[in-house]
Amino acid sequence: MKTGITGATGQLGQLVVEQLKERTAAANIVALVRDTVKASGLGVEARTFDYNKPSALASALEGIDQLLLISGNEIGQRKTQHEHVIAAAKEAGVKHILYTSLLHADRSTLSLAPEHLATEEALKNSGVAYTILRNGWYTENYTGSISGSLAAGAFIGSAAEGKISSASRLDFAEAAAIVLTSENQQGKTYELAGDDAYTLGDLAAELSKQQEKEIPYTDFPEQEYAEVLKTFGVPDAFAHAIAGWDASAAKDDLFDSGKELSTLLGRPTTPLKDTIKATLAAL
């Protein structure tokens, strides 16, 4: 069984490859990447694979039995890009496609949801067996702001008291590797989220505890938060996107209590405090 991983040099993709190598021979894994030089350290076969060059995708998928389609990072282009990949996979004879979607994509108010949902529909209409991994928020999406928060003396956002069931990026990568190496996964949709929910106020409190220094959480209205982000050099469109995601988090769009992720892993998901500790250690 040869498995292709798109975006294999990305933050999630690299972790999936490493987790997969623990469960199957490296010879069974193909990294599908824009730059094969960057994939040289993965220890697996690498093939050039660019979502924006559809005519070359099918040939790159020759001999691939199952494909993990990690969603692209070009927001606004994902629907078209993913449709290119799905069509190419069908042409190449790929038997099973797994896709990293978004938690509760069918009812989420996050601006990211429509493209994910459109990809899910394209998969269901493709005629190729599929599995949908609806990934919740990576804890690192928030802990990545810790350095700036320490410098500013406050953690800021626009999520109010919204509950966030995040997990570490490694948790999601391990789950993907488990599904890729398990039987009878076709047709399943997983809602994957962390075991324990927290608010951004809780995150700031844990950060304060570990730093032994008060780092309060300051909550802004959505538009004001976007303006603050822009003063830090965040591009206008991305600043408004980030603020919008927090506004959706305030509506509990990043909350889930089903524990499907930890059930897949066979262990609890990584606690918030552990990811904060690792982030601080890396600073």
Description:
The termini are far apart. The radius of gyration is 19 Å and the shape is globular. Helices cover 42% and strands 14% of the residues. It has 2 domains: 3-135, Rossmann fold (3-Layer(aba) Sandwich); 154-162 and 195-256 and 266-282, Alpha-Beta Complex (UDP-galactose 4-epimerase, domain 1). The protein has 12 helices and 9 strands. The protein has helices at residues 11-21, 57-60, 78-92, 113-124, 140-143, 146-152, 169-180, 200-211, 222-231, 236-249, 260-265, 272-282, and strands at 3-6, 29-33, 45-48, 66-69, 96-102, 129-135, 155-157, 189-192, 217-219. It is of the alpha/beta class and 283 residues long. The strands form 2 sheets. The protein has a 7-stranded parallel β-sheet with strand order 3-2-1-4-5-6-8, with helices on both faces. Strands 7-9 form a two-stranded parallel ribbon. Helix 3 runs parallel beside helix 4 (113-124). The model has no long low-confidence stretch (mean pLDDT 97).
What is the secondary structure topology, with strand pairs?
Elements: E1 3-6, H1 11-21, E2 29-33, E3 45-48, H2 57-60, E4 66-69, H3 78-92, E5 96-102, H4 113-124, E6 129-135, H5 140-143, H6 146-152, E7 155-157, H7 169-180, E8 189-192, H8 200-211, E9 217-219, H9 222-231, H10 236-249, H11 260-265, H12 272-282
Parallel strand pairs: 1-2, 1-4, 2-3, 4-5, 5-6, 6-8, 7-9
EC number: 1.6.5.2
GO molecular function: NAD(P)H dehydrogenase (quinone) activity
Keywords: Oxidoreductase
